[in-house]
Task: structure prediction
Amino acid sequence: MIKYVILFLSIIITLIVIYSISVWKGMDSFIFAWILNFMLMIAVFSFSQTMKPKLTSSYYNTKEWEKGGRVYESLGVNLFRKILVWIGWEKLNKKANPVKKGLNSLLQLEYGTRQSEFGHLIIFLIVVLVNIFVAIKFGFGNSLWLLILNLILNFYPIILQRYNRPRLKRIINVNKELITITIS
Result:
């Protein structure tokens, strides 16, 4: 019961903060775009940790056009990965979530890619809607912060998860085969 109260409170606080910033600084400001993204991240994280969705949809399977990751490479996913290393995000992430050896650890890591993609996708769609509203109300130029931050904070993390997941699944499948061979 307490976890649902915490989820409800995090959503309410998120909405209050977003509304307050929109009134204080305006929806066409950088600070609004920044806080909108991070408050939505808090709310979505709270939701995903409370509800623990299974995320088994076929959406998470690699599509034929994604094979090899060339589409994502052409969109700059490797540059985005380098930026994450440069700013220290990879080091922080590995420290907070160390990767251990073993099939269960790999399966948890693969689930984490789906969970991360799910969260960033929800935020991406919400910010796109806000971006459209701001572009209509204040003009396209005034909605650029929303667009730029949405690309950096949500779009690229989504494609990074979609780029990494097939490689992770191959490693998982190899480990499953090794376990099967060992048991036989």
